[in-house]
């Protein structure tokens, strides 16, 4: 190998010149063999979508309510006395007119017989007085007795007639009291737990005591009040009532759609625990005043309760149907966005990009929005992922949903 003579300037020039040519070759190769840069935009935004539909929507109002007996009667004794028997089975259905309990009738039977005896005695006295009056009138016509004696006898007859009339009232009162020793069911309904056992003394005030039984007047004015109770509570649960309150603003809408509550509104009761439908009935009664302290009004619905799914005191969710809108365009409420210019939705176009559409909403019901203008049935709207979208954004559908889901 020949060694370069670095002392010779010509050799150095040739080496540097070769290195320069090599550098130029490398630079040219890098320039002409560099891959062209590709233009790229932001990636598609993953979104969830739903299809706008045309359907019938029932507008309703949901409130918390409570079931209560349509009619509830606390059965009390109407006469005082010893309770001999209880003639119903607790928790079973009783019919109006059924015998519920028997109070000792002996004192009232005796009072009736005594009143009947007094009536017969006074009727006999009245008959005798009338005979005397007839004789006195004949004698007075012959001038055999003074006229004053006739007038006195006529007054005696009137007096005896008054006694007889009073006796007849006493007999009727005694008969009524005797009848009230049979405690009769006033309504058809379900009996509750009996509140007094046979052998106790009951009174017209609903008390249970140990005082001796004496015949009490029908008005019970001489009854001594106490802390006792009745015999049984009978609740009518077929039909049953469901009461609830609505705000004053909703009441105005209710009155309008029901024509002043002349048109029945469909009312449904749902279980608070499971959400299951318990029964369906009609709104029947609106209270006659708005509570000024709460700004609400109480409403009462009548439900048939044929399956006994509702029970007095049970809390339920009440759904009151106001009206049904037919053939309206609906989208999920999650597709509705709020902006400075009002509501809008992102509609997915065929090219995969979204268009921002202004919306005019007619109403909302639960998770469904009713669109009056802005979206047509069959169009695809974005329900999730709108936060990073703008008009014209490219999207990728991740999962479709349905209105109301």
Task: Describe the protein in words.
The structure is a single chain. 24% of the residues are buried. Strands 1, 15, 16, 17, 20 and 21 form a six-stranded mixed beta sheet that branches. The chain has a six-stranded antiparallel barrel with strand order 2-10-13-12-11-14. The protein has a five-stranded antiparallel beta sheet with strand order 6-5-3-8-9, with no helix packed on it. The protein starts with 8 loop residues before the first helix and ends with a strand. The protein has a domain at 48-58 and 326-401: conserved putative lor/sdh protein from methanococcus maripaludis s2 fold (Beta Barrel). It has helices at 9-32, 106-141, 147-179, 248-257, and strands spanning 45-51, 53-75, 81-86, 93-94, 99-103, 182-184, 189-191, 201-202, 208-209, 232-247, 266-271, 277-286, 296-303, 315-332, 337-339, 342-348, 354-358, 360-365, 368-373, 380-384, 395-401. A hairpin with a 5-residue loop joins β8 (201-202) and β9. α2 packs antiparallel against α3 (147-179). Residues 210-227 have low confidence and may be disordered. It has 405 residues and is an alpha+beta fold. 25% of the residues lie in helices and 37% in strands.
């Amino acid at each position: 190998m020949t060694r370069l003579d670095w002392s010779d300037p010509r050799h150095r020039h040739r080496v540097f010149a070769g290195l320069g040519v090599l550098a130029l070759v490398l630079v040219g190769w890098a320039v002409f063999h560099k891959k062209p840069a590709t233009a790229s935009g932001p990636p598609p935004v993953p979104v969830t979508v739903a299809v706008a539909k045309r359907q019938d929507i029932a507008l309703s109002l949901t409130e918390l309510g409570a079931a209560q007996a349509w009619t509830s009667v606390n059965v009390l004794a109407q006469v005082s006395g010893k309770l001999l028997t209880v003639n119903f089975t607790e928790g079973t259905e009783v019919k109006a007119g059924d015998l519920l309990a028997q109070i000792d009738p002996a004192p009232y039977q005796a009072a009736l017989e005594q009143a009947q005896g007094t009536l017969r005695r006074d009727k006999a006295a009245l008959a005798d007085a009338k005979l005397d009056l007839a004789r006195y009138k004949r004698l007075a016509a012959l001038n055999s007795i003074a006229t004053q004696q006739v007038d006195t006898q006529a007054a005696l007859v009137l007096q005896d007639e008054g006694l007889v009339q009073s006796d007849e009232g006493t007999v009727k009162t005694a008969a009524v009291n005797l009848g009230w020793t049979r405690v009769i069911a006033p309504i058809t309904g379900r009996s509750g737990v009996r509140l007094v056992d046979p052998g106790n003394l009951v009174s017209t005030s609903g008390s249970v005591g140990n005082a001796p039984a004496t015949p009490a007047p029908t008005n019970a004015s001489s009854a001594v009040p106490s802390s006792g109770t009745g015999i049984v509570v009978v609740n009518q649960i077929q039909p049953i009532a469901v009461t609830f309150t609505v705000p004053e603003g909703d009441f105005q809408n209710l009155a309008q759609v029901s024509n002043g509550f002349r048109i029945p509104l469909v009312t449904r009761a749902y279980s608070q625990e499971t959400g299951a439908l318990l029964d369906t009935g009609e709104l029947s009664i609106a209270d006659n005043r708005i509570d000024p302290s709460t700004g609400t009004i109480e409403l009462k619905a009548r439900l048939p309760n044929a399956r006994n799914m509702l029970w007095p005191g049970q809390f339920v969710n009440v759904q009151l149907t106001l009206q049904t809108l037919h053939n309206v365009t609906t989208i999920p409420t999650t597709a509705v966005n709020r902006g400075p210019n009002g509501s809008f939705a992102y509609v997915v176009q065929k090219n995969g990009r979204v268009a921002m559409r202004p919306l005019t909403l007619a109403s909302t019901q639960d998770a469904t929005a009713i669109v009056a203008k802005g979206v047509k049935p069959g169009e695809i709207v974005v329900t999730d992922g709108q936060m990073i979208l703008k008009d014209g954004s490219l999207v990728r559908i991740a999962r479709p949903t349905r209105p109301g889901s």
